[in-house]
Amino acid sequence: MTSDTTAAGGASSRPLRPARAPARSKLRNGTWVIPGTGERTRRQFTLRYPHLDGPSDEDGIRPISEAGTVKDKARNAWHNTQVVASNLWTWVNSPKGRGTIKCSIAYLLASMGTFWQPAASFLGPMDGKHIVATISVYFHPARSAGSQIEAVAIAVVAVCYAMFIGTLSMATSVLFGSVLDMVELSYALVLIIFIGGGLGFVGWVKQKLNNPLVSVGASIASIGIITIVTKENSVHTGVFTNQKIIQSLKILLMATTISTLVNLLIWPVSARLALRKSMRNASTSLGDMLSMISSGFLSGAEEDFTSNAFTKASTGYTSTLSQMNKNARESKYEYYFLGQEQIYRQDRDVVKSMEKLAQSLGGLRSAANTQFELLKEVSNGPPSASSAVSPTTNVFSPVFGRSLSATLKSGGNRFGSLGPINEAPDERSDREDEPTTMQGTTPPVLSPSTSSLRTPSDIFELFIARLGPSMKSLVHTMAEMLKEPPFGAPGSPIMINGHFKQSLGDAISLYNQARGNALEEIYKSIELGRTISESVQADFEEVAAACGHFSFSLLSFADEMQIYLDTLDDLRDTTEQNKRTWKWLMFWKHIKLPSRSKGEDPEQLSLIKPVKRLRQSKLPQGIPDAIKNRRNTLNWDTAPQGEGLWDRVIRGTSRSLFKFFKFLARDDIRFGLKVGIGATLYAMFAFIPQTRPIYALWRGEWGLLSFMIVCSMTVGASNATGSARFTGTIMGAACVLVNWWISNGNGIALAFLGWAVAFGAFYIMVDRGNAAFGRFILLSYNVSSLYAYSLTQKVDDDDDDEGGIHPIIGSIAYHRVVAVSAGILWGLIICRLIWPMPARQKFKEGLAVLYLQMGLIWKRGPLAILLRNDTAATSYMKMGEQAAMQRYATQLQTLRVAANNEYELRGPFPFEQYGRVMASTQRALDAFHAMSLVTQKHGRLSAGEKALLYYTAEERQQLCARICHVLQVLASSVMLEYPLTDAIPSVMVVRDKLLGKIFRFRKEHIHNHNINGGAPADAEDGSKGPSTAAAAATATIDTATGENGATSIGPDGKAKVSSRVSNVAVEEPDYALLYAYALVTGQLAKELKVVEKEIENLFGRLDEDALLLQ
User: Nearest 5°: phi and psi at 306?
Assistant: First the structure.
């Protein structure tokens, strides 16, 4: 970072001029540790990364019309041609470009099952050979080897299941139709059991697993079942034949072989290699984000967080982390196939460690936002607020203590924002060998003198001047480590620099020393400034706590970095051992039988049981089972219990029936039943003699398949899928007509034109990310073009209605479009009429439950847990709760997108408004995590901290209850879509009471200290001890008294203490924990206010004049 030529902090004594730019503080270079060597140096460096500022526009397309002469136009045209060719070559060599080409090649080879006579002969004389190309579309090769293994396994299971259902249906038809001569009964059994039950089970599996590959596997299974049961004559005539089953197995063998060979031979992609690459990218992205967040805090400019560079880095690391999780899941199959299960587990631990680093980074950003909010209030304050508070001001009033009150806003002209940090010019790289001075000693020129501290901005200036160099040095050390990820190709050694751990430990040690000195100096400055007004003094302490909160969050990130380095060591050791095991094949060892529980050892029980991990693919359930069970059994629990036998029988039978029907009412069971009912009603036209010819003429099997594809869990998802299916079918049919007209039915020409269509469709699927739309285009093309050509090869099928060996392509395409449209319409009708599950309703229920969960967690008391468990550091959140809530919020975003596709007469879904609600909810979750870090890593409480916590127990309990109350009100309003009232209690009022109570504690502590003349108080044993806080400051520390047992309020409004008084030394750092708590609750209150405002805009607000009784 280049040094600035403007004068620095010494200018504070000059007259203030409003027009003058904000003063920029000179920040010297501190001693930092070179990660690779462990050497300490004072070499200059910067936290800003120019590569994140974005590319220049000099190599873009030049408009030809803007050229003045013909020569300039020709030059621009040639330049544009070069740019397009360069971009095309870059795309061809990109993963998406290669994937598109691979998929089109696989489709061309799969279409040879129809166009190439030897391949067609291998599949037999029956029609349906285009299914080879269909499977290659569903399980395309543009995936990693691990994903290909998973896809092949799912395809095998899907086809085997279809063959199993088809075999049983034919056996049932033979038994009841031919042997017992009960044709109608056989049709009914086939419809109910094998169509309704078989396809309903497919729908249930698709919803339960909610995996894209499982969904396409369900489509493959549906094709097999529908073709065998409804189209083939064997089930209708009661004849058992295995021709279709054998052909289906051959189709599966050919399609999977082609897809796998193309996947492994043409530009193969390894999920293990992709995982390592995404690990490297994630590590670099985390380093960039760490540097930019810290740089923004040091500069005091919120614009750093809204710049293009920060947005680019944030978006990059978010997408990288999601891609890393995807690669980790796919690499599992490769590792297990190669017998490297242990390496996969270590890779997974590294991924989880990176996720924790990302969570800590979110907490660090939340802490930085606190500073920005404080500075923003200062810079926006009115000049008239410069007058100090009168000595008669009631500092204990409910409105006292709001963050940076109006009395502080006089500093807006002077330190409206902190200028970017600059190294002092006397710190050159050629002085790195000179002896390093103590970290805590800083020349006076670097900051305002302690006697000139008049505004909170002065506190920030002092803090940054004292801790800035060490903070910047620690950040740079960690960022350099993250920028040198040790991940190589799979199987290659993990090259971890042996100095990293020692270097990080030294950097943390230097930072801890400077952090302690800086905070101590800040609190000493506050002590020296006791002559200023009380409200300004209280706000000084809050600002000092904001500084300490960020410094602590940075230290928490450093602790996570140490854990991250430990996981890297474990990965390196496991890689060096290179043991190959295939223990996953011993499936019997993974079956856990229920065993009799032995006597539980109380010492081995966890104080807080971990939360069961929420499956990533599972959709939010909405109202939890615990609430439903209580609501459903309330009437029986409150009813008087009779003693007679009949009463007990009624009660037991009713509860058993209710439990059974409640099982059927589960969302996944309802969805399976809905799919089964819809499929049965649609397929019955294939078994009614009067309607079977119509079903065969209009290709009802493709309508039934469309129904299976369109029928989704929510109405919104069904609408989106149905729209894509219909549009894709129209486009595919249009391509069929054009290609058939061009080729005139020639096989070679159709193969080439089909490849061109496939290339465009796979471009939509792979490059543009719209897999469903591109897939539907090709499926429509397959069932018309390839099927029509197969008719010319004299297959065994009764298709004279469509031209036979001289196919009428228009009729074929038209029948398919009508069939698909009918299936889409039927799927939308079933999803809307039978147990509809609107995504809107699921989203509202899920959001309400999330708010209820957040309120209950906060009600535990983030600081109360420290008093209840004083032996070790712990968190108020159970293990896994943070991850569960984060995943739940992510899944709510999926439901929000689905709800945007639902059309209701009352209007569209408020997508943007709920987007802002979810953004505030995410920031609130970051605040939850930040508070969890504070409590989890705080360590044992000091005596002064205990005194403070007991003294403020009542206010903290009220604040927790108030936040829980507001969250519950918001949850109810979202759930019921009811307007809010104008009497929602304010969180800030209770928070202000807490700040006033803390200030009262400090005031009485200082008062008693002055009474004692500053002399040490006598201890009970007659020895001399440190100065103590009597009265309110010496509250009884007795855990048996509970949260509110420490103090009581007397008639005079002052705190009364228990007769048992223990003298407790209260030091300035003891206040930091409570102020960090107040800061986090302030952030939480702000986000709740944002959510409240959005809900008010959505549903309105009721006042006292509203008339509701009508």
Answer: -110, 5
